Amino acid sequence: MKLAKVITLIFLFPFTNVLGQGILPNRLLWTQISASNLINVKSKATVALKKNTAFVFISPECPLCKNYILVLNDLCKKYPQVNIVGIVPGKSYTLQDIKQFAEKYNAGFDIYLDKNKIFTKILKAKVTPETVVIDKNGNVRYRGLIDNWQAKLGVKRKVITDHYLDDALHGINTATYKYLETIPLGCLINDL
Questions:
Q1: 55-65, pLDDT tens digit by residue?
Q2: I want to staple 144 with a disulfide (CB 3.0 to 4.6 A). Which of 100, 121, 175, 182 is the partner?
Q3: Helix and strand totals (H; E) in the chain
Protein backbone atom coordinates (compact mmCIF):
# COMPACT_ATOMS: atom_id res chain seq x y z
CA MET A 1 0.00 0.00 0.00
CA LYS A 2 2.84 2.42 0.90
CA LEU A 3 4.56 1.58 -2.37
CA ALA A 4 1.40 2.52 -4.28
CA LYS A 5 1.26 5.92 -2.48
CA VAL A 6 4.93 6.60 -3.22
CA ILE A 7 4.46 5.73 -6.89
CA THR A 8 1.37 7.94 -7.06
CA LEU A 9 3.26 10.89 -5.50
CA ILE A 10 6.18 10.42 -7.89
CA PHE A 11 3.75 10.43 -10.83
CA LEU A 12 1.94 13.57 -9.65
CA PHE A 13 5.07 15.58 -8.70
CA PRO A 14 5.70 16.97 -12.21
CA PHE A 15 2.18 18.40 -12.30
CA THR A 16 2.67 20.48 -9.17
CA ASN A 17 4.55 23.05 -11.22
CA VAL A 18 1.53 23.59 -13.45
CA LEU A 19 -0.46 24.67 -10.45
CA GLY A 20 2.36 26.66 -8.85
CA GLN A 21 1.44 30.13 -7.63
CA GLY A 22 3.46 33.09 -6.44
CA ILE A 23 5.85 35.43 -8.18
CA LEU A 24 9.44 34.29 -8.38
CA PRO A 25 11.57 37.33 -7.47
CA ASN A 26 14.89 37.78 -9.23
CA ARG A 27 16.24 41.32 -8.97
CA LEU A 28 19.39 40.43 -10.89
CA LEU A 29 17.69 38.85 -13.87
CA TRP A 30 17.94 41.94 -16.12
CA THR A 31 21.63 42.22 -15.26
CA GLN A 32 22.14 38.59 -16.26
CA ILE A 33 20.19 39.13 -19.48
CA SER A 34 22.29 42.17 -20.45
CA ALA A 35 25.50 40.17 -19.94
CA SER A 36 24.39 37.09 -21.88
CA ASN A 37 25.77 38.18 -25.31
CA LEU A 38 22.62 37.67 -27.35
CA ILE A 39 23.09 38.46 -31.05
CA ASN A 40 20.22 40.12 -32.94
CA VAL A 41 19.88 38.46 -36.35
CA LYS A 42 18.45 41.59 -38.05
CA SER A 43 20.51 44.43 -36.62
CA LYS A 44 22.90 45.43 -33.89
CA ALA A 45 20.02 46.23 -31.55
CA THR A 46 20.10 44.71 -28.10
CA VAL A 47 17.25 43.41 -25.97
CA ALA A 48 15.37 46.29 -24.34
CA LEU A 49 16.04 45.97 -20.64
CA LYS A 50 13.62 46.50 -17.77
CA LYS A 51 10.56 46.25 -20.00
CA ASN A 52 7.84 43.62 -19.79
CA THR A 53 9.16 40.95 -22.12
CA ALA A 54 8.09 37.55 -23.42
CA PHE A 55 11.12 35.47 -24.38
CA VAL A 56 10.09 32.66 -26.72
CA PHE A 57 12.67 29.96 -27.39
CA ILE A 58 12.34 28.82 -30.99
CA SER A 59 14.10 26.69 -33.56
CA PRO A 60 14.00 27.24 -37.34
CA GLU A 61 13.40 23.50 -37.90
CA CYS A 62 10.74 23.01 -35.22
CA PRO A 63 7.31 22.57 -36.87
CA LEU A 64 5.54 23.98 -33.82
CA CYS A 65 7.71 27.10 -33.88
CA LYS A 66 6.90 27.68 -37.54
CA ASN A 67 3.19 27.45 -36.77
CA TYR A 68 3.41 29.75 -33.77
CA ILE A 69 5.02 32.65 -35.66
CA LEU A 70 1.55 33.89 -36.69
CA VAL A 71 0.34 33.72 -33.08
CA LEU A 72 3.40 35.62 -31.88
CA ASN A 73 2.93 38.24 -34.61
CA ASP A 74 -0.68 38.72 -33.48
CA LEU A 75 0.45 39.09 -29.87
CA CYS A 76 3.00 41.72 -30.94
CA LYS A 77 0.17 43.75 -32.47
CA LYS A 78 -2.17 43.17 -29.53
CA TYR A 79 0.42 44.13 -26.89
CA PRO A 80 2.74 46.78 -28.41
CA GLN A 81 3.80 47.83 -24.91
CA VAL A 82 5.30 44.35 -24.34
CA ASN A 83 8.53 43.23 -25.94
CA ILE A 84 8.24 39.82 -27.63
CA VAL A 85 11.63 38.32 -28.38
CA GLY A 86 12.53 35.10 -30.17
CA ILE A 87 15.59 33.22 -28.93
CA VAL A 88 17.34 30.55 -30.99
CA PRO A 89 19.62 28.60 -28.64
CA GLY A 90 22.81 26.78 -29.61
CA LYS A 91 25.21 26.56 -32.52
CA SER A 92 23.08 24.53 -34.93
CA TYR A 93 22.03 27.60 -36.95
CA THR A 94 23.98 30.49 -38.42
CA LEU A 95 22.78 34.06 -38.33
CA GLN A 96 21.95 33.69 -42.02
CA ASP A 97 19.84 30.55 -41.35
CA ILE A 98 17.86 32.37 -38.68
CA LYS A 99 17.48 35.48 -40.81
CA GLN A 100 16.08 33.37 -43.67
CA PHE A 101 13.69 31.68 -41.24
CA ALA A 102 12.50 35.07 -39.93
CA GLU A 103 11.97 36.36 -43.48
CA LYS A 104 10.26 33.19 -44.74
CA TYR A 105 7.75 33.18 -41.89
CA ASN A 106 7.53 36.98 -41.73
CA ALA A 107 8.39 37.21 -38.04
CA GLY A 108 7.21 40.55 -36.70
CA PHE A 109 9.51 40.51 -33.69
CA ASP A 110 13.24 40.51 -33.07
CA ILE A 111 15.02 37.17 -33.00
CA TYR A 112 18.33 36.67 -31.20
CA LEU A 113 20.91 33.92 -31.37
CA ASP A 114 22.07 32.54 -28.03
CA LYS A 115 25.08 30.79 -29.49
CA ASN A 116 26.58 29.54 -26.24
CA LYS A 117 23.22 29.05 -24.56
CA ILE A 118 24.16 31.30 -21.65
CA PHE A 119 20.78 33.02 -21.79
CA THR A 120 19.00 29.69 -22.26
CA LYS A 121 20.61 28.41 -19.07
CA ILE A 122 19.74 31.58 -17.16
CA LEU A 123 16.06 31.13 -18.01
CA LYS A 124 16.27 27.32 -17.73
CA ALA A 125 14.59 26.72 -21.09
CA LYS A 126 14.43 23.08 -22.15
CA VAL A 127 12.39 22.90 -25.37
CA THR A 128 11.23 24.93 -28.36
CA PRO A 129 8.78 26.56 -28.33
CA GLU A 130 8.95 27.58 -24.68
CA THR A 131 7.98 30.95 -23.27
CA VAL A 132 9.31 32.86 -20.27
CA VAL A 133 7.60 36.16 -19.42
CA ILE A 134 9.57 38.61 -17.30
CA ASP A 135 8.13 41.85 -15.97
CA LYS A 136 9.96 45.17 -15.93
CA ASN A 137 11.15 44.49 -12.37
CA GLY A 138 12.87 41.24 -13.32
CA ASN A 139 10.25 38.88 -11.95
CA VAL A 140 9.39 35.75 -13.93
CA ARG A 141 5.62 35.96 -14.34
CA TYR A 142 4.94 33.01 -16.65
CA ARG A 143 6.81 30.00 -17.98
CA GLY A 144 5.73 27.31 -20.41
CA LEU A 145 3.37 26.84 -23.35
CA ILE A 146 2.11 29.54 -25.68
CA ASP A 147 -1.33 27.95 -25.54
CA ASN A 148 -2.83 24.46 -25.31
CA TRP A 149 -3.03 23.79 -29.04
CA GLN A 150 -0.54 20.96 -28.56
CA ALA A 151 -2.33 18.45 -26.32
CA LYS A 152 0.74 16.21 -26.27
CA LEU A 153 3.58 15.55 -28.68
CA GLY A 154 2.10 14.85 -32.09
CA VAL A 155 -1.49 15.53 -30.98
CA LYS A 156 -3.07 18.92 -31.63
CA ARG A 157 -6.42 20.18 -30.41
CA LYS A 158 -9.03 21.36 -32.89
CA VAL A 159 -10.02 24.16 -30.53
CA ILE A 160 -7.57 26.06 -28.35
CA THR A 161 -9.14 26.64 -24.96
CA ASP A 162 -6.22 28.08 -22.95
CA HIS A 163 -4.17 31.03 -24.21
CA TYR A 164 -1.46 31.05 -21.56
CA LEU A 165 0.91 33.60 -23.11
CA ASP A 166 -1.93 35.93 -24.11
CA ASP A 167 -3.32 35.77 -20.57
CA ALA A 168 0.12 36.44 -19.07
CA LEU A 169 0.70 39.47 -21.29
CA HIS A 170 -2.80 40.76 -20.54
CA GLY A 171 -2.34 40.46 -16.78
CA ILE A 172 1.34 41.30 -16.38
CA ASN A 173 0.67 44.81 -15.04
CA THR A 174 -2.07 43.80 -12.64
CA ALA A 175 -1.19 43.27 -9.01
CA THR A 176 -3.51 40.28 -8.74
CA TYR A 177 -1.86 38.32 -11.55
CA LYS A 178 -0.30 35.16 -10.12
CA TYR A 179 2.74 33.38 -11.46
CA LEU A 180 1.77 30.41 -13.60
CA GLU A 181 3.86 27.63 -15.06
CA THR A 182 2.90 25.00 -17.59
CA ILE A 183 4.99 22.16 -18.93
CA PRO A 184 6.15 23.06 -22.45
CA LEU A 185 5.94 20.51 -25.25
CA GLY A 186 8.18 20.56 -28.28
CA CYS A 187 11.66 19.87 -29.55
CA LEU A 188 14.36 19.42 -26.92
CA ILE A 189 17.08 22.07 -26.98
CA ASN A 190 20.22 20.19 -27.91
CA ASP A 191 23.73 20.71 -26.57
CA LEU A 192 25.50 21.57 -29.84
A1: 999 999 999 99
A2: 182
A3: 6, 11
